[in-house]
Specification:
Distance between the termini: 96 Å
Structural class: alpha/beta
Number of strands: 20
Largest sheet: 8 strands, mixed
Shape: globular
CATH class of the largest domain: Alpha Beta
Helix content: 25-40%
């Protein structure tokens, strides 16, 4: 009897230990689940092709900011029901529907990542047109642009509608290039070249977070602002409009009549002549009242087109040199082979930027180095005590020199023999101006003395350009990196790389083939 009682106690203790272990395991599992589902501790390892389920660091930072602020964001998708349409579709229509289905799947996957990283602040709702027409009608009630097959981004009472095939995708449709008229050939199917969902959605989200409509008054001078040419600034003007700016041309005779306001920027691109004294005085007074100004004064091939802006610089503490800034073409593999001659020395890679300034810090973090051309040096001179010049804003590498040419007919570009002539040169500066009255808003002038924001350079330097204008009007939400939108896709070959490729094609490859033939003949003779 005693033995059976003892055995029963042991079995009871054993079951209690099992139950306790199970409870502890359940508690650990529940605690780990709660802990690791917190947005700040989430981590995603993306092993999918083309990193389909990954977001750019800039988007992750934006979502982290939304979490910290507690800003509620809603995403609503209203997709066309493709399964009902595909039943009677022909070959061409079936291919189009396949692209539409792919875009819908990509958009669902993308929004899943926004919800994953946004935590409780981000809500994603997918609406079915057939099953919930009342809900769709309610969602579209306060939306200005009511379109189906789209994504609606809502922040508070503001919203933006994005079409998945127009705004979120780059589709090449050959029918758009066909001339009108009868044809017997079957139209070539469209091709989905690129999915730009993250870029479009993050841009729309940032624009909804930025309040107000700032204005940019561009002085209508010698620069081409609207034509679709490489030297024009039409892409910058269009990008500013997309970012919510109201871009307005200003007649030079009315340059002193800029309306006052906190969200106003006065911009001058490529002036070919000295500013009138009244315009220079107007700029100084505008800055003293907290105004914002952007000046782009690159080097021009015609000497008389290179104004010094002394009537403005002497007041604010800067001078613009007349010389052309050039830079050594560095050979990273063998620095001794660096080139100091040829048109390639006109390219100025801006590797030295202010590491703490809101405009340049995101570029340095992501290693997005602007590429400018036809630069002039900005020098600091004694000026008024109410202005300070930051010449660390945009600087070249250490191999820059000043070329003393006066026109395009001068001798070929070649670096000097004096080693002391090579140093880092400033081609972009920020001038901070104290307000006239204590407690007023300080003024800011951004001075760029190189080409980089025209259509030829905007695709590479778009982030820098838009950061400057958004910072000037204090739209901090829009200052950053815009995904892969402004990354150079063209191949820039240095003279050293061209020489190596030529040697490879003319000597290395034929030599290897000749050696292989000799080996084959030798083995056959054996």
């Amino acid at each position: 009897m005693a033995m059976s009682t003892l055995g029963g106690r042991r079995r009871l203790v054993g079951w209690l230990q099992v139950a306790l272990a199970a409870l502890l395991a359940l508690g650990v599992w529940a605690g780990a689940t709660v802990l690791f589902t917190r947005p700040a501790l989430k981590a995603l390892v993306d092993l999918s092709p083309q990193a389909r389920f990954s977001l750019e660091p800039a988007t992750e930072e934006l979502l982290a900011t939304l979490r910290e602020r507690g800003t509620a964001v809603e995403f609503h998708t209203i997709f066309a029901p493709l399964d009902a349409i595909a039943q009677d579709a022909g070959p061409y229509r079936s291919h189009v529907l396949h692209i539409e289905r792919t875009l819908q799947d990509l958009t669902r996957d993308l929004l899943r990542q926004y919800a994953y990283l946004g935590g409780d602040t981000v809500t994603v709702q997918h609406h079915d047109l057939r099953r919930e027409p009342g809900t769709v009608k309610e969602v579209l009630k306060n939306v200005a642009d009511r379109r189906y097959n789209s994504v609606i981004v809502k922040v508070g009472k503001r919203s933006r509608t994005l079409s998945i095939d127009l705004d979120l995708a780059d589709i090449d449709d050959p029918r758009q290039r066909q001339t009108p008229g009868p044809t017997s050939q079957q139209p070539a199917p469209p091709v989905l070249k690129d999915y730009k969902g993250e870029e479009a959605i993050s841009t729309a989200l940032k624009s909804l977070l930025a309040e107000g409509e700032p204005e940019v008054y561009v002085l209508a001078n010698d620069a081409n602002l609207n034509d679709p040419t490489s030297s024009s600034y039409s892409e910058l003007m269009a990008a500013l409009t997309d970012e919510g700016f109201a871009v307005k041309a200003l007649d030079p005779a009315r340059a002193d009549r800029i309306p006052p306001g906190d969200n106003v920027v006065f911009a001058i691109f490529e002036p070919h002549y000295e500013l009138p004294d009244r315009t220079a005085e107007m700029i100084v007074q505008l800055l003293r009242r907290g105004g914002r100004v952007f000046l782009c004064v690159p080097w021009q091939e015609i000497d008389s087109w290179n104004p010094s802006l002394d009537n403005l610089g002497k007041r604010l503490g800067f001078a613009i040199g007349p010389e052309l800034v050039c830079h050594v073409i560095v050979d990273s593999d063998n620095p001794r082979n660096s080139v100091v001659a040829g048109n390639g020395v006109l390219n100025l890679q801006i590797v030295n930027m202010n590491p703490v300034h809101p405009v340049t810090r995101p570029l340095l973090v992501r290693r997005r180095y602007p590429l400018l051309k036809f630069g002039r040096e900005i020098r600091e001179v004694p000026g008024a005590d109410f202005a300070r010049v930051d010449r660390s804003f945009l600087r070249t590498g250490p191999g820059a020199w000043l070329d003393q040419r006066v026109s395009s007919s001068s001798s070929a570009l070649h670096g000097p023999n004096d080693p002391s002539a090579y140093q880092s040169r400033c081609v972009g500066a920020v001038v901070d101006v104290d307000p006239e009255q204590a407690g007023g808003r300080p003024g800011h002038l951004v001075l760029l003395t190189a080409l980089g924001f025209n259509n030829l350079g905007f695709q590479t330097n778009g982030d820098l350009a838009l950061n400057i204008f958004n910072w000037l009007v204090e739209r901090r939400e829009l200052v950053g990196i815009r995904g892969k939108k402004y990354v150079a896709h063209k191949v820039e070959l240095t003279p050293q790389q061209i020489l190596r490729i030529s040697w490879l094609l003319s000597a290395a490859v034929p030599g290897a083939l000749l050696l292989l033939g000799i080996v084959v003949v030798w083995r056959r003779n054996r």
